[in-house]
């Protein structure tokens, strides 16, 4: 599966709107900067029909180094970003369920 990059977004939006790619890039970059700044301040970012980004604190836990399994490594709690998909996104992604099941079954059969 291919990834959609920021560059891909810039090109697609530029082609669809006729705007100059550098202008589209600036708008996308500023949007991402504002989202990042809001999350860094502890604010949730809600984009209707897309989803909600929120900062959550993970619990501290004990991990293990695979190279030294007898040594416990404390992993401190930390702030992480959680994304919850909006209704429209969930519905559209849900349509891929059967396709992903088929790919998963093919992978298991080839092992």
Concise structural overview:
The protein is α+β, with helices and mostly antiparallel strands.
Question: Which characteristics define this entry?
Answer:
111 residues, alpha+beta, HU Protein, Chain A, two-stranded antiparallel ribbon, 5 strands, 49% helix, extended
What would the principal axes of the Cα set say about the shape?
extended
Strand content: 25-35%
Portion in helices: 40-55%
Element order, helices and strands? Answer: HHEEEEEHH
Describe the structure.
This protein is α+β, with helices and mostly antiparallel strands. The protein has 2 domains: 1-43, no CATH class; 44-111, IHF-like DNA-binding proteins (HU Protein, Chain A, Irregular), CATH 4.10.520.10. The protein has 4 helices and 5 strands; from the N terminus they run ααβββββαα. The chain has helices at 6-17, 21-40, 87-94, 97-110; strands spanning 45-47, 51-57, 61-65, 68-75, 79-85. It has a 3-stranded antiparallel sheet. Strand 1 (45-47) and strand 2 (51-57) form a beta hairpin. The radius of gyration is 20 Å and the shape is extended.
Question: Would you spell out the secondary-structure blueprint of this structure?
Answer:
Layout: H1 6-17, H2 21-40, E1 45-47, E2 51-57, E3 61-65, E4 68-75, E5 79-85, H3 87-94, H4 97-110
Antiparallel strand pairs: 1-2, 2-5, 3-4
Helix pairs in contact: 1-2
């Amino acid at each position: 599966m291919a990834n959609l990059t920021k560059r891909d977004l810039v090109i697609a939006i530029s082609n669809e709107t006729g705007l100059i790619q550098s202008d589209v890039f600036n708008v996308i970059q500023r949007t991402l900067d504002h989202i990042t700044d809001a999350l860094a301040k502890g604010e949730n970012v809600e984009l209707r029909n897309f989803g909600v980004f929120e900062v959550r604190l993970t619990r501290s836990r004990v991990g293990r180094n695979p190279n030294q399994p007898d040594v416990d490594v404390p992993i401190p709690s930390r702030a992480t970003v959680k994304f919850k998909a909006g209704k429209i996104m969930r519905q559209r992604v849900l349509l891929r369920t059967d396709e992903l099941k088929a790919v998963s079954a093919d992978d298991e059969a080839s092992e």
